[in-house]
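Colleagues,

For the teaching module next term, I've prepared a clean inverse folding example: a structure given as tokens, and then the sequence designed for it. I'd like students to try predicting residues themselves before seeing the answer, so please don't circulate the second half yet.
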């Protein structure tokens, strides 16, 4: 039979492990930075970390306007890419 102090120690260890697990799983906050990227022969807005695009546009200027609207709403940044994929500019709305 286990002593009550031993069982309390195991319970405390288990609680600490669970707390550490849940804290580590939420360590990366969701980012709302909007990237304006080349997409096929057009331009697209894509939220940072997403594989899917948010919207597709014929002109880069239209994609930038859309990205700015989303970034302002979420107090994020707009990262504008060149046609070759390199970063051209970054606009912050925080």
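(Answer key — instructors only)
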């Amino acid at each position: 039979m286990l002593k009550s102090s031993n069982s309390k120690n195991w319970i405390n260890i288990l609680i600490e492990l669970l707390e550490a697990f849940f804290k580590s799983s939420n360590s990366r906050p969701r980012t709302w930075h909007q990237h304006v990227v080349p997409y096929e022969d057009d331009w697209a807005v894509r939220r940072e970390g997403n594989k899917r695009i948010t919207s597709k546009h014929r002109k880069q200027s239209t994609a930038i306007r859309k990205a700015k609207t989303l970034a302002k709403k979420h107090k994020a940044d707009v990262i504008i890419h060149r046609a070759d994929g390199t970063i051209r500019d970054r606009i912050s709305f925080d």
